[in-house]
Specification:
5 helices, elongated, Rossmann fold, Lipocalin
Length: 427
């Protein structure tokens, strides 16, 4: 079966990793033009005049409304009038309505009916003026986050780490308190993997995020985070397409959390990288531990105390990843530790530059509208480094000073129309 779905497309570009045989460093990309319409998900299934669903097959795309139970859809059916047909419509709760257009007879027919939507599948019974009652069943996958651009799906593993060699600097009066953190390992999986999706975030993190809004979000329900379905899935085997995958450590901005960077993290992973994201207690907005404890951002944590903690967190996490590469039952041997990079947003950009300066295991770095502490990089940085800058900060004094101290293969890019938080899901 083949389809040729027509709809209005906007031009975009994919950054596709080059083959392993080509010479280069950690990040080698070729630019490939594509045509992509922004949609939240896709569906496919069978249709027919009886519940044997012997009429044919269908597939298409969908965009969701405020919840996963309302939205619009468009796609194609085969074996319709001895040819094919296009279908488009919308659904809300258990009701669906729209138009089916025969590609042979060029006749459109109105339909309405009942649709039952479950976690990953649906059934429908509709009435059409020309065909009478039709039945359909199928599967769907949808997310409010952007579609993945790479060939892989995303697997998720969350870990609680404790560095018993490092007392917690923010609680110096408690000698029994050691530095701990939460990390999320996001890794490539086969897209066909059927496992439960990971939650976008937990309730305490969403409550914290909602309270950070400068205006009251009275129309946003307290469980709205459950409507956002990330592409990441839990309890998945890493893809066997390659023996091992390059590793990227990610540090969020001050008073941020890695959850609000999910769309970018997932897309990087879909292109064949393992991303290890860190929530830094007392520097991240909130860190929620498995036992229910919550640690919020501390006052004045952007100084040397916070910066040192975040830098040492990243190094410690890389140490743990090295251990996991020898011991973890799921990921043993799958981390390519000869290709390790780091990126961070804002304050995380500062820690990225310092880690690249101090630790030779970090081969390259990228900052998303980063801030920089040049006193920690007295001799400049001689590694590949990319500065992605929000609009109007291209010639910012702090950015320019960092740029002047980059001696490796470096780039500075201004993203027109972007703001400081444009690199997040909420910006």
């Amino acid at each position: 079966m083949s389809f040729n779905t027509e709809s209005s497309y906007s031009k975009g570009y994919d950054f596709v990793p080059e083959s392993d045989e080509q010479d280069g460093g950690l990040f080698n990309y070729q630019i490939k033009e594509n045509n992509v319409e922004w949609f939240d998900g896709n569906f496919k299934g069978l249709w027919g005049k009886t519940k044997e669903y012997s009429g044919g097959e269908f597939l298409g795309n969908l965009n969701l409304g405020r919840t996963s139970t309302d939205g619009k859809f468009w796609g194609d059916l085969n074996n319709y009038d001895d040819s094919s047909a296009t279908i488009k419509g919308f659904f809300k709760n258990n009701l669906a309505t729209g138009i089916i257009k025969s590609n042979q007879k060029m006749i459109s027919t109105f339909f309405f009916g009942k649709i039952s939507i479950y976690e990953t599948n649906f059934t429908a019974i509709i009435f059409t003026l020309s065909k009478g009652i039709l039945y359909a069943k199928g599967e769907y996958e949808a997310s409010f986050l952007p579609p993945l651009t790479g060939p892989y799906g995303v697997g998720i593993k969350n870990l609680h780490l404790i560095d018993e060699s490092r007392p917690e600097n923010f609680t110096q009066n408690n000698p029994d308190d050691f530095r701990e953190m939460m990390i999320q390992i996001s890794y490539p999986i086969d897209k066909e993997t059927k496992e439960p999706r990971v939650e976008y975030m937990d309730q305490p993190t969403f409550t914290w995020l909602k309270d950070r809004s400068p205006i009251p979000l009275i129309t946003i329900p307290n469980n709205a985070y459950t409507y956002v379905k990330p592409h990441g899935k839990i309890s998945c085997s890493i893809s066997g397409n390659k023996d091992k995958y390059p590793v990227i450590i990610f540090s969020p901005g001050y008073d941020g959390v890695y959850q609000i960077y999910t769309s970018l993290i997932e897309d990087i992973v879909s292109n064949g990288f393992i991303v290890v994201s860190i929530n830094h207690p007392y520097v991240s907005g909130i860190t929620v531990f498995p036992d229910g404890r919550k640690i919020y951002v501390a006052e004045n944590s952007t100084g040397s105390l916070g910066l040192k903690s975040v830098v040492e967190d990243a190094k410690f996490v890389l140490n743990k990843i090295t251990e996991l590469n020898e011991t973890d039952s799921d990921l043993k041997g799958r981390f390519d530790l000869s290709k390790v990079g780091m990126y961070g947003h804002s304050f995380g950009g500062a820690s990225t530059s310092i880690c690249c300066y101090e630790d030779n295991r970090f081969l390259c770095g990228l900052t998303l509208d980063g801030v920089f502490y040049l006193d920690y990089i007295p001799n400049g940085l001689n590694k590949p480094f990319l500065l992605m800058i929000a609009e109007d900060r291209f010639n910012d004094e702090n950015v320019q000073e960092m740029w002047n101290n980059l001696y490796g293969d470096s780039y500075k890019v201004e993203i027109m129309g972007s703001t400081h938080y444009a690199y997040t899901d909420v910006g």
